Amino acid sequence: MWARHLLRRTACLLQGLPLGLHHRLVLRHITSSLLQYPGTRLSWSHLHGGSKSTACFNPCRTLKRDAKSSIDVPANPVTVTDIKQYLRSKGISFHDGYSCLHASSIFVETKSQMQEGAGKDSYTMFIDKMTGQFLCKETLVEGSWEDLQDCLEVMQKEGQTSISPEVLLSYSESVEEQGQREMELKEVQRIWSSSVTFTDLHEEELQLIKTMFQISKINNATLKKFGVRFFKPTKSLVFPWFSGYDLHIRGIKLLSAATKGDGRVVYTEASIPKLSNYYNLFGLPLVGRKETEMVLTGSEIDSMAVSQATGLTALALPRGVSCLPPVLLPYLEQFRKVTLWLGGDMHAWEASKMFSKKLGLKRCSLVRPGEFHPCPNEALMQGKNLARIVKASIPAAHKSIVSFKQLRDDVFGELSNVEQVAGIKWGRFPELNRILKGHRKGELTVFTGPTGSGKTTFISEYALDLCMQGVNTLWGSFEIKNVRLAKIILTQFAMQRLEESLEQYDYWADKFEELPLYFMTFHGQQNVKTVLDTMHHAVYLYDISHVIIDNLQFMMGQENLSVDKFAIQDNIIGAFRKFATNSSCHVTLIIHPRKEEDDKELQTASIFGTAKASQEADNVLILQEKKLVTCPGRRSLQVAKNRFDGDVGIFPLEFNKSSLTFSAPVRSKQKLRKVKGDKAENSETEVKEKSEKVSKSTKEPKTRKTLKEPATGKNEMNGE
Ligand SMILES: Nc1ncnc2c1ncn2[C@@H]1O[C@H](COP(=O)(O)OP(=O)(O)OP(=O)(O)O)[C@@H](O)[C@H]1O
Which strand (E) or helix (H) includes residue 581? Predict the structure, then answer.
């Protein structure tokens, strides 16, 4: 219905346009609207009842901002050279920025803008160099590279020097979305208008609130400057999101604190619109047009601390260290120097290294976390000199050759943060933590197991566990369709058969939607280059730090059977290895085993292909289906390689058919075999046995509520 409505509107707006272009615009907008439904894989048949046509319509186009759950890569990925050439061909003046090209806006009616040599300061249109996505800061029109091209084509055909922002603004939302947005806005206004400023609070109440939120060193003037209020009904700090256009309230973030029975204070964060759509750089309205230096922090409170203590411009990322959405990059283009001080731990350090790549390494410097450099608010509380800490930040750009002098602090950081360096711990698989120590960025894990043994099911829960802790995850499922895979993951998330309690579906689906989980929309055989392009694209857009590929065989191609299959596989593994290292992204690669005799356990050498897979992998995991002496009839997970600290071993898994989950069985004396090196294939006699009591918590998964300190700004992910 709305698609037809859209079509009619588009047709009216485009009256008089040449048919081909008109047709393309209409189709584009239908496409983008369809793609706004998570998981939608748009095929030609959506539009043409199955028949393929040669019209210049690209079904795999860039996504709109909200179409976040499924990831397509443009069939013809745009490069910065393409963008520049195109702009030149249309007579649009521009200059090279850090992450964007700055161009004269075509949505503003200033004829002089189109002239060569117009002042650079007048450039208000920012075009992302990686994706071509654009934003006009003057009118807040944004869209994809294709949208911009269409507008320029229309302008040229019509002989115009500018185009009305309405053309794109009117397409950006469906009727339902508009209704939803209006409802949200009303709620935002309701909370905002019934919140009180800090100067309206009694001194006693004020001090209590400040103590509760650990902001006793943030003074009232700073709270006022940043527009922070207090919402009494939920006892929450209210951080406003003002529209950059007319400074109207556009959204809010609420930070609440509650004291638990044991006296601990638990902080929770909520926002309207929901966090995944909350694109606010807190502090932006305070930035002057001419300012060139800024400190980027991981939370609103940290920004206030920096601003108050140093007088420097400080902005906070909307979702802390979890991501830097590219839609925010245009707002950071004016800064010649960006200091990233995202927190006081290793996660903040990892994130600042990743984000500085997006921001442009040359202008970034990083505050190295540690005992002397906690997060800004903590530094303020401890009476540290924040200006000195910012000044001591280190340049993000590094040389190819370094001496130990330059590495010395990094090495110290690793030695003094052993737990964090070991990676994120699984909540459902404590045995995996014991052997592998954690899930680390930049590693390659190869996972194998007999056909139909439950590889996808296990890896799905293994990845979900991490995703629930804020690990931005991308699934490449080539074997089973995304809907089926999402159903498996959702069942594991809810830990129950939702078929039998459909009334709970929306409850779980709403929570599930908040997870940073994305799916590639591929199915069946795929070209590895396309898959890697999509992965790069996703890392840029969503700061993905874990990619699961199920499975490698789907990239091997079927045509060239004469070509050496092993050589092809080795190349693919090499490419994934390189991607993992260069993108600081963990890749979990499922590879089928070669044919083995049924009653033999698998070993590292059973992985299909040459030894390249196990050599390149940091971790090799094997789902063993064979009966173990100690646990007859059960699956077990073997860690056959662990480059991080060499510990290998095996532990039993217990499959729960209704929740599709695996958890270690509770036994008083669970035997666990400890295997050193790659000797898993050797006889049982060579295997050291180690008795170990399996913690009861594995049977009753813990509630993994992220206890947030106000300054960390991490998302709360809790699905149990
Ligand atoms: N431990 C288990 N015990 C019994 N059934 C299981 C177990 N693990 C998974 N299953 C079920 O077996 C079926 C196949 O599981 P899954 O697709 O995960 O296997 P796979 O190893 O990935 O398969 P393939 O080799 O085809 O890729 C699913 O229906 C799943 O629910």
Answer: helix 565-583
How much is the mean pLDDT over the chain? 78
Ligand 1 pocket: which of 447, 448, 455, 457 to mutate (most atoms <8 Å of CB)? 457
The length of the chain is: 720
Q: Is the beta carbon of 633 within 6 A of some atom in ligand 1?
A: no
Q: Tell whether ligand 1 has an atom less than 6 A from the beta carbon of residue 655.
A: yes
Q: Which atom of ligand 1 is nearest to the CA of 458?
A: 18
Q: How many CB atoms lie within 10 A of CB 400?
A: 4
Query: Which residue, by CA, sits nearest to atom 18 of ligand 1?
Result: 454
* Six-digit token string for 123: 């450039």
Atom 1, ligand 1: residue with shortest CA distance: 655
Six-digit token string for 639: 């860690």
Backbone φ, ψ for residue 317 (5° rounding): -75, 140
> Ligand 1 atom closest to Cα of 655?
1
Considering the entire predicted model, what is its pTM? Answer: 0.73
Quick one: which atom of ligand 1 is closest to the CA of 457?
A: 18
Q: Is the CB of 454 under 6 A from ligand 1?
A: yes
Residue 719 Cα to ligand 1 midpoint, Å, equals 23
250 pocket-lining for ligand 1 (C-beta < 6 Å): no
Q: Report which protein residue has its CA nearest ligand 1's atom 8.
A: 454
Atom of ligand 1 nearest to the CA of 662: 1
Which residues, 6 or more positions from 57, have their beta carbon under 8 angstroms from its beta carbon?
Answer: 24, 27, 28, 31, 47
In this predicted model, what pLDDT tens digit does every residue of 50-92 receive, in sequence order? Answer: 333 322 323 222 223 333 456 555 556 788 999 999 999 988 8
At residue 604's C-alpha, the angle toward residues 602 and 607, to 5°, is 80
Q: Which among 181, 299, 194, 316 has a CA at the least distance from the CA of 250?
A: 181
Residues 6+ apart with CB under 8 A from 206: 198, 220
DSSP 94-106: EEE-SSEEEE--T
Residue 644, ligand 1, Cβ within 6 A = no
DSSP 3-state assignment of 337? strand
Distance between CA 150 and CA 24 in Å, rounded? 9
136 pairs with which residues across the strands?
125
Report the nearest atom of ligand 1 relative to the CA of 488. 31
Residue having the nearest C-alpha atom to atom 29 of ligand 1: 454
Spatial CA neighbour of 289 closest among 321, 329, 257, 333: 333
Which residue's alpha carbon is at the smallest distance from atom 28 of ligand 1?
A: 454
One DSSP character per residue, 407-420 reads HHHHHHHHHHTHHH
| C-alpha span between 421 and 413 (Å, rounded) | 9
Q: What is the pLDDT of residue 120?
A: 60
Q: What is the number of alpha carbons within 13 Å of residue 577 lying toward its C-beta?
A: 15
Would the CB of 455 count as within 6 Å of ligand 1? Answer: yes
pLDDT interval class at 45 (50, 70, 90):
very low
458 Cα: distance to centroid of ligand 1 (angstroms): 8
Residue written as tokens 């053309």?
167
Give every CB contact of residue 343 below 8 A, 6+ residues apart in sequence. 298, 299, 302, 320, 321, 351, 369, 375, 711, 712, 713
At 46, the pLDDT band (50, 70, 90 cuts) reads very low
pLDDT of residue 475: 95
Residue closest to 547 by CA, chosen among 497, 597, 656, 473:
473
Q: Cis peptide before 560, with omega less than 30 degrees from 0?
A: no
CA dist list (Å): 447 to 74, 188, 608: 29, 46, 11
Q: Work out whether the CA dihedral 75, 81, 85, 87 comes out positive or negative.
A: positive
Closest among 259, 101, 267, 272 to 181, alpha carbons compared = 272
